[in-house]
Amino acid sequence: MTDNKELEIIKKLKECGKSSYYIAKKTGLSNSSIANWLNGKTSPNPANIAILEHFFEIEDGKGSNNINAGVISHSTVNQDNRSYYSDSPDVLRARIEQLDRLIEEKEYRIKEKDAQIKEKDAQIKALLEIVAKK
Asked: Model pTM?
């Protein structure tokens, strides 16, 4: 179910005149995700909505007067033969929230599978008892 913020952001995405590739590069979001939101295949989650709201604030000139302030950056820095992945705090927070949701989902699925396995074990034990009696 989409809420008003989702509808508002999707409307802004459609009306802004920017390509999904441009928005993806500026925000660090996936180009395919943005395209899916625009096509109505999926909806942005709250973390992605926050990133897009921040993006539109900067694009509309409502953000800081400093042209580089708040720009959501995405880069890899090489130092001493090591690569460091550098993102803005907004992007990092959004990714952490996405990972937290993914972990919760996986934990829930594991619990479901454990319950199914226990049920199957009980069924097998019951069948073995029946076969043993014959």
From this structure: 0.45
